[in-house]
Amino acid sequence: MRLQSVIRAIYPAQCVACDAPTEAEFGLCGSCWRETKFIGGLICDTCGTPLPGEDRGEVIQCDDCMTIARPWYRGRAALIYTGIGRRLVLSLKHGDRTDLARPAAMWMTRVVRPLLKENTVLVPVPLHWIRLARRRYNQAALLVHALGKAVDRPVCADALLRPKKTKALEGHNRDARFAVLADAIMPNPNRTAQIAGKSVLLVDDVMTSGATLAACAEAATAAGAADVSIVTLARVVKDA
């Protein structure tokens, strides 16, 4: 405890979003917490997007999930991809803020509990090796390891592979995103035994159209997963 006190005196805890002083490490200050749009209340059970109305405990889907065949069972997201939430996701993804994986996992733990089973194994959305070499880390893999530790479930970090290099999805509409991801992700033949017959929880930083997660869910199912669910740090929401 004495060493921790010395460390805290030299490096006091700071807000992960704005560097303001905080009581605890890896958290948000009061101002940033109030401005961050955490998802709660009535949500789509399939993708986790917030919905208008009161949560009465019923299973409800959003318009997209009622019209798009999702190859996964249930889904959750911790934040709305706007404001501070968007800034945190981009900092984790492109800004070398690997430290954000720890608080992100805590926020994801809050929403993911209903999706967990005894045989759940956590699997990250993979990166193509060229993009991984350029970025030096896979943000989904950082999240999956932190989340796996938080919820006490095993992780299979390389269960899925991305042998096909795809162009960036930003700026593409939904149909174009799904077309780009066709056959881009496949199961790792050396890891099928670790997910066959298991409940797979796919982990990623943000969901927009769901094209990437759909490709991953199909690959996990092809590898023999009993069922697939998803959790993301953030969810793109219309008019947010």
The overall average pLDDT, rounded, is 90
| Oligomer description | single chain
Query: How would a crystallographer describe the biggest sheet?
Result: 4 strands, parallel
Share of β-strand residues: 5-15%
Radius of gyration: 18 Å
- Structural class, please? alpha/beta
Total DSSP helices: 10
Within the largest sheet, what's the order of strands?
1-6-5-2
Helical proportion?
A: 25-40%
Order of helices and strands: HHHEHHEHHEHEHEHE
Q: Number of DSSP strands?
A: 6
N→C terminal distance:
43 Å
What sort of overall outline do the alpha carbons produce when their principal axes are compared? globular
Low-confidence regions: 1-9
Task: Describe the overall structure.
With 240 residues, the chain is of the alpha/beta class. The protein is 36% helix and 14% strand. The protein has helices spanning 2-10, 30-35, 63-67, 83-94, 101-112, 129-135, 139-151, 174-180, 192-195, 211-222; strands at 75-80, 120-124, 160-161, 186-187, 199-207, 227-235. It has a four-stranded parallel beta sheet, sandwiched between helices. Strands 3-4 form a two-stranded antiparallel sheet. Strand 5, helix 10 (211-222) and strand 6 form a beta-alpha-beta unit.
